[in-house]
Amino acid sequence: MLRGILLYVLVILAVVTALFRPFSGLLFYLWFSFGSPANFVWPGLLFDYEVWIAGATLLSYILIEMGRSPLRLKGMRLLFLLWFWFAVISVTAQIPMIAFPKLWEYSRIFIMAFLTFALASSEKRIRSILYVLAMSLGFLGLKGGFDAVTTGFTSSMKGPGGMMSEQNEYALALNMGIPILFWLAKDEPRWWVRWIFRGMAAGSALVVIGTRSRSGLLGLIMVGIVLTVFSEHKLLLSAAGVVCLTLLLLFGPHGALERYKTIPTAAQVDASAIGRLQAWRAAIRMVEAHPIRGVGLRNFLYVFPQYSSDPPRVTHNAIFDLLSEAGIPGCAIFIAMIATAIGEMFLLRLKARAHSELQHLVTYCQIVFGVLAVYLVPNMFINRQDFDLMYQMLAVEAGLAILIQQRLAAQHAQAQAVAGVEIPLWLKAQSMQ
Questions:
Q1: Count of beta carbons in the 10 Å neighbourhood of residue 77
Q2: Count of domains for the chain
Q3: Residues of the chain by 3-state class (helix, strand, coil), percent to 5
Q4: What Å distances lie between residue 56 and 12, 27, 60, 64, CA to CA?
Q5: Same domain for 125 and 222?
Q6: Which of 239, 261, 283 is the last residue of a domain?
């Protein structure tokens, strides 16, 4: 009961703060969404508190902040197009009454992503967003890692609830959190914060192993690859990765290793993998029958018997799920949206590296690149195209891209002025934004 009262007090504090300070309200929203404080409260005491915090933040933004930080479409056009397409296919879905609730879920996620994009208008704000995400996911990793070690990994670890309730989704979230923690620690001047973040990253890795999720292991390997690619000590980090993988295979938890051993032969002997292949075949038949509009959001399981005699089950693959439910256009927009963001972060990082005063932004580019790259790998074996953390990172990416372009334009304009060269009007306008 005391924990429930504390949760209510925190929600009231968040709502009141959001009504006067919309950016603070956004940070509260991110903490409640990914830190999952409700995990420590009895289920009977819970309510949809995120709607209250999000609503207060949105109202406050409209009344107070919109003039200073207007809504922007540049950088998020593909997300807006995806939103429009989801609305269209919900109307044309085979069972619209099933599709519309899913459209509303996506709409809530997209609205908050656009709000994050509007408010992520400065380096300080982007840093604050990344710190809140790091501490929210990092706390779960630190606590979960401690629990895993003290219990000897005796049981499969599950997440706190919501989109992180199941093992695969929990592993996905913590894998996405590790690059944020790792690179913020590297960029952090306070030694004690660096070690806290490193401990959180290590704990998150332990939790991923504790979930016994095979897609989680693949995501963790991708984390190691991404961290190594951007490391200044590639050989050392590669050697450390090989040592960690060897230790895992030799001394890792028995339950996790038994699951991992089935990866090479899963398609032949594992019932879960065989079921996924059956679902993929059903998805292909749906695409063949409805290549443009698909069968509609969340319609896959309900129309499954029309396309396969196998037992209905989810696809466990984001691409097949999107192809079957949103058609080829919806899947193409989704892939283009993520690929564009990853490519833009990579290119802007290269440009910003040449300027010493932009090194913090270089780190943020690496973080966004890493998180989105890590997100993709597990989603070949789970279908979490609706994972709100990914859309929040797309919003951060769009805000960060605009900020870096403005900084580079301002520096170029300053260099032109020093050289006595007349500055074009478009460059002056961009540098003054």
A1: 12
A2: 2
A3: 80, 0, 20
A4: 11, 12, 6, 12
A5: yes
A6: 261
d(CA 398, CA 389): 14
Last residue of a domain, one of 261, 295, 317: 261
* Cα distances (Å, whole numbers) of residue 96 to 86, 103, 319: 12, 10, 21
130 and 257 in a common domain: yes
SS3 per-residue string spanning 374-422: HHHCHHHCCCCCCCHHHHHHHHHHHHHHHHHHHHHHHHHHHHHHHCCCC
Q: Is residue 153 part of a domain?
A: yes
Q: Is 212 helix (H, G, I), strand (E, B) or coil?
A: coil
- Say what the pTM is: 0.92
Chain segment 2-25, per-residue pLDDT in tens: 777 888 888 899 999 999 999 999
Same domain membership, residue 137 and residue 63:
no
**Residue 39: other Cβ atoms inside 10 A:** 15
- For 259-306, write each residue's pLDDT tens digit: 887 776 655 556 777 888 899 999 999 999 999 999 999 999 999 999
Enclosing domain of residue 132: 120-261
Locate 35 and state its tokens.
Answer: 């830190």
Q: Is residue 86 part of a domain?
A: no
Q: Is residue 174 part of a domain?
A: yes
Closest CA to 133 of 216, 34, 221: 34
Residue 213 lies in a domain: yes
- CB contact set of 307 (below 8 Å; sequence gap of 6+): 282, 285, 286, 289
* Helix H or strand E segment including 112: helix 96-119
